Amino acid sequence: MRKNLIAGNWKMNTNHLEAIQMVQKLSYRLDPADYERVDVVVCPPFTALRSAQTVIETDHLGIKLGAQNVDWHDNGAFTGEISPLMLHKLSVSHVIVGHSERRQLFGETDEVVNTKANAVIAAGMTPIVCVGETEDERDAGEAEARVGTQIRASIEGIDSESVASIVVAYEPIWAIGTGRTASADDAGAMCSFVREQIRDSFGDAAESTRVLYGGSVNPGNVAGLMAKQDIDGGLVGGASLDPDTFASVVRYWV
Ligand code: 13P
Predict the structure, then answer these.
(1) Are 52 and 42 in contact (CB under 8 A)?
(2) N or C: which end of the chain has fewer CB within 10 A?
(3) Which of 115, 229, 107, 125 is nearest to 167 (CA)?
(4) How far apart, in Å, are the Cα atoms of 80 and each of 48, 83, 243?
(5) Ligand 1 pocket residue status of 97, Cβ below 6 Å
(6) Residue span of the structural domain in which 93 resides
(7) Which residue's CA lies nearest to atom 1 of ligand 1?
(8) What are the catalytic residues?
(9) From ligand 1's centre to the CA of 45, what distance in Å?
(10) 220 C-beta neighbours (distance < 10 Å), count
């Protein structure tokens, strides 16, 4: 049985004071029963992690803390970078690696994503490994080929035990921030395809890996997506910035 996971990727939004309010507001809208059903993760910018951590720990909230990116070195002369050890010390449990915006705007390759994913695991955290095709690739019938290459290369070298506990997010690039969600059938089929790829390399561990869908998830479409066998949750951008809206996504069955 895979527990559902819904993660809010705040991207480059919110200062640390706004982050405190958002975490508090979200917590008022969620009950203990919600956390039993869904792992709820928020991924604020680096500058808000410490503040979010303090609220979560002081108020004993069930919300988990995620980061949006990481470097793979432990420390050293890497100006501007943040290490897995630094994130772990802030009680960060999940780290997004290989988001399409990192791949497209900051030149991250599958090899870089793979190195980051391994470093996150080595530091005792869970990577949320993102994959997804462009609109051109989908139109050319190459979505599976693209996503297959990305997923295999991004999780190479991870041991089977760890693969069982990582999270993979299928985020078609054409659906991110566009309001154009993949249909539940298409998203479900691609998430099944992702799981098959993991199964090919890692066998039964793939049954435990959580596969999320991301791309214009909102309170109106989340239930249909979650009904799909191989969709275990969502990676939510825009709709995670309003605590009311995000709480409605988390409570998708209500
Ligand atoms: P939107 O939900 O805004 O489309 O963003 C999706 C995303 O990129 C989450 O990582």
Answers:
(1) yes
(2) N
(3) 125
(4) 16, 10, 30
(5) no
(6) 4-252
(7) 237
(8) 99, 171
(9) 15
(10) 11
Cα 205 to ligand 1 centre (Å): 27
Q: DSSP secondary-structure letter at 160?
A: H
- Cβ 216 under 6 angstroms from ligand 1: yes
Report how far residue 40's alpha carbon sits from residue 38's, in angstroms, rounded to the nearest whole number.
Answer: 6
- Verify whether ligand 1 is closer than 6 Å to residue 177 (CB atom): yes
Which residue bears the tokens 């070195």? Answer: 73
Instruction: Show the DSSP H helices in 76-217 as ranges.
Output: 84-89, 100-105, 110-122, 135-139, 143-154, 160-165, 184-202
Ligand 1 mean position, distance from CA 213 (Å): 10
Task: Identify the CATH number of the domain in which residue 202 sits.
Answer: 3.20.20.70
Structural tokens at position 29: 């809208």
What spacing in Å lies between the alpha carbon of 162 and ligand 1's midpoint? 26
Number of domains in the chain: 1
Any atom of ligand 1 within 6 Å of the Cβ of 104: no
- Provide the angle, in degrees to the nearest 10, between the axes of the packed helices 143-154 and 184-202: 40
Closest Cα to atom 7 of ligand 1: 237
Alpha carbons 83 and 103: distance in angstroms, whole number:
19
Per-position pLDDT tens, the chain of length 254? 899 999 999 999 999 999 999 999 999 999 999 999 999 999 999 999 999 999 999 999 999 999 999 999 999 999 999 999 999 999 999 999 999 999 999 999 999 999 999 999 999 999 999 999 999 999 999 999 999 999 999 999 999 999 999 999 999 999 999 989 999 999 999 999 999 999 999 999 999 999 999 999 999 999 999 999 999 999 999 999 999 999 999 999 99
Nearest-CA residue for atom 2 of ligand 1: 237
